[in-house]
Amino acid sequence: MSQATITRSFSLISRAPDKVEARESINLRMQAFRSLENTYLDVLFDALRDSTLELMDFAGESKAHVKEHVYNKLELNLISSSYQPKIKIKERMKRSAIQYPYFAVRSWLIQTHYLSLIIRELITLLSDSLTHAVRFLQGDPLSKPVMGRLSRALRADCFGNTNFLSHAYISNLIGQVRNLFISNSHLGSLLSDQISLTEINSTQVQEFLEKCLKSFSRKKKGKTQVIPISELKSYFFKLYVARVKKQSTWNAKHVMKIKDMDAFKQSRNNFFEFLIDSLHDVLGKVPGSFTHDLAQKMFNEILEDSGNSAPEHLIKGIFKPFTRAARVDIIPTRNGFIQYFGQVLKNQLILNVKELFITGDFITEMNNELDFLKESLHNLVNRPKIRNLALPINQAEGIYEADFSRLTIKLSFRSKEFIEYRVKDEKGRINELMERGATTRLPVLTIKGRKFLLHLPFELPSNDLSKHSSPETQTSRVVIGVDLGVKHLAVLSVMDLTDPHHPVEIARYFIGMRTLFDKKFNSVSGRFESKERFNHSHSKKKSCIKRKLRNMRHEARNIQRKVHEYENHFSERNTNSPARQYKHYRLTKTVSGAWNRVKHLNEEIIHQLQHLILQIALYHNASLLKFENLKWSRHSKKKYVGSYLAFWQTHWFFSQVQESVKLQASLHGITFQLVNAAYTSQTCWECGKRGRREGRNFTCMNHALHASKKPIFIHSDLNAARVIALA
Ligand SMILES: [Zn+2]
Asked: Helix %, strand %, coil % for the chain, to 5?
């Protein structure tokens, strides 16, 4: 029979009278445990170094394997940690302490093996072509065929197990190789030798400068055009003037806080006109070699900067360079232009300068270093260290006792000492799971801040099979009513109508964006669990789809408005230049892109919601899914003000959800039904009379008609879902 494991976490509360003292003492014991774990790590690495342990001693993953190949072989029971000598951890607890160090070393071995395989592949790649070397050193992603080749090379780990690694993981490994290479490379000194030998007048450098100057381009009529060197000066002068104007406008607006911007622009333009004309004259008289000389000067600066930096930084400086934006002042001047133009040229040179240095010699040297790196990986790759205070129990005997009927556990770190804890389970979750046939497994205990936590795995027998075959379900009629809305995307009421006169609500679900995107419906337990996509704290961030959608819609609308403004402007001026047409074309493109993103996200929500509703229906073995007929829709405009969906979209959204549920339900043999339920929001689900609805609260005062003989107070969406289920 298939089984499923789910883990629940509980706080542990000390039974000792002095809570502060109890917390300190458990902290001390956990620290002693952690320091023993780190001592074991050192012992394992030493054993690997002097070959007391072989690679294959780490091949197994079972408790028995660890005990036989590592714990007993190294006589770890004789080793104590020096950190907390007062706390003598007992032998049985020590057997738990080997777990994490063993697996840490095991994955370290696998990782190191992968790194060495990558280096081996890199060496062959680099001798093939220079581009791979440049890409690797720049940290650019490698090409698809190369990634494919690497993923084939990494198919087996060092224990011969087959793994299919993702490209993201392989890229990460390549990054690690690159970091190791850069921080351990001696190529910096080779580079600095090369730099000091570089002759500015050598043909090689002159060719390089020429090539860089020819690499500027502009767009003309949608085509990319290389700017001839002779035109560079005037081309960048125009850009310079435009940038200065922009800068001075910004300055006037935000620094000088001038109110009348039109008047300011008028007088500024008059003033600039004269300056620009005279600058034009000055620049017209500079010698023809002006651009080339400036580039040469900038190249000298780059060489000087590189010559001054330490050899170990050189590699990064050359292969992962950073550039500075060319700055301008608020008044056009000769020096200002030369500075601006110089920076533009310098940036272009910086981005290309590596070409000068990646030569055959460099690659040979690089390969030698990679080879060396491969041989010394075991000393260079960071060794794991255990930082968390965690206690994985791997055998109960003598160290861990649990009595969940009394909600207590006992721990024993030292001989003759048992510490008792109460398991905080106010909702009775343990009891509930046990009643459903779950059995507990050995837990992990952790300390988080001031909290001592028990992470307890439960093994559940899968009830899928038993459910389908039980005679009870054949006669039972489970109906689900679904109320779609915007606050809660869907509210589900699961009704058992086996006895039509006494409907029983088995379960109810409120599905919001959070439930949809941050939680996972466990189809074994029938509960929502938090979705831990990866085991990193930074990815535990909650997704905020609603805000994302709203922002995207705002963005799209803003661009849309710009397009309209632009179109109006157009017709007023009655100009139709190609440049304007192109800009208009670009703007409309961006608008449709933005709306497309909104649409895709909406579709994703619909898809997820459909999937979830069906999962719930299958879990409860429902025979009928009921939705409200949108023709009768009671949704008023007011309800949606400020929501993420535009008013006109809600109807579309609801009908899309219904359509896709209908299709999927028919594939699973579940009947889909639309209910003509006018006034669902005002009707009481139990007595069918009109009640009162205020926001999310529904009240029905006809207590005489209710089974409980009391008035009904209920969430209005849940009431609606029940009305739909019973209609
Ligand atoms: Zn009522």
From this structure: 55, 15, 30
Domain boundary among 310, 326, 358: 358
CA of 678 relative to ligand 1 center, distance in Å: 16
683 C-alpha to ligand 1 centroid (Å): 8
Rounded to whole angstroms, the Cα distance separating 644 from 542 reads 18
Q: How far apart are CA 502 and CA 499, in angstroms?
A: 5
Q: Which of 677, 692, 722 marks a domain boundary?
A: 677
Structural domains counted in the chain: 2
φ, ψ for residue 597, nearest 5 deg? -65, -40
Q: Which residues contact 79 (CB under 8 A, 6 or more apart)?
A: 36, 39, 40, 43, 94
The predicted structure's pLDDT at residue 572: 60
- Which of these ranges, 60-64, 185-189, 521-525, 545-549, has the smallest mean pLDDT? 545-549
Residue 519 sits in the same domain as residue 644: yes
Alpha-carbon span 476 to 204, nearest angstrom: 87
Give 711 Cα–ligand 1 centroid separation in angstroms: 7
CA of 702 to the centre of ligand 1 (A): 5
User: Amino acid identity, residue 257?
Assistant: K
Separation CA 174–CA 138 (nearest Å): 12
Q: What is the mean pLDDT of residues 576-604?
A: 79
Burial of 700 (0-12, 13-18, 19+ CB in 10 A): buried
- Are 252 and 240 in contact by the 8 Å Cβ rule? The answer is no
Q: Is 292 helix (H, G, I), strand (E, B) or coil?
A: helix
Compute the distance from residue 697 Cα to the ligand 1 centre, in Å.
Answer: 14
How many angstroms is it from 625 CA to the middle of ligand 1?
A: 24
**Residue 187, in any domain of the structure:** no
How many angstroms does the Cα of residue 493 sit away from the middle of ligand 1? 17
The helix (H) or strand (E) run that includes residue 482 is: strand 478-484
Cα of 614 from ligand 1 centre, angstroms? 30
- DSSP states along 139-201: TPPPPHHHHHHHHHHTSB-TTS-B----HHHHHHHHHHHHHHHHHH--HHHHHHHHHHH--TT
Ligand 1 center to 506 CA (angstroms):
20
Do 348 and 485 belong to one domain? no
Residue 85 lies in a domain: no
Domain extent for 621: 471-543+610-677
492: domain CATH number is: 3.30.420
Dihedral pair phi/psi, residue 401, rounded to 5°:
-130, 135
| Distance from Cα 674 to the centre of ligand 1, integer Å | 23
Span from the CA of 622 to the centroid of ligand 1 (angstroms): 26
Helical ranges in 309-419 per DSSP H: 311-319, 334-352, 354-357, 360-375, 377-380
Q: Who's near 725: CB < 8 A, 6+ residues apart? A: 479, 480, 481, 493, 494, 495, 503, 626
In 3D space, the residue among 265, 259, 275 whose CA is nearest the CA of residue 245 turns out to be 265
Distance of CA 502 to the CA centre of its chain: 48
Tell me the CA–centroid distance for residue 510 and ligand 1, in Å.
22
Q: What is the pLDDT of residues 155-213, one digit of tens each?
A: 888 888 887 777 778 888 998 998 888 888 888 778 888 888 887 778 888 888 998 99
Within a domain: 485: yes
CA dist., res. 315 & res. 189, Å (int) = 9
Q: Does any domain span residue 300?
A: yes
pLDDT tens figures, 248-298: 998 888 888 888 888 888 889 888 888 888 888 888 888 888 898 999 999
Among 1, 24, 23, 25, which residue's Cα sits nearest to residue 12? 23
State which amino acid sits at residue 279: L
Measured CA to CA, the distance from residue 14 to residue 26 in angstroms comes to 10
CB atoms within 10 A of CB 217: 11
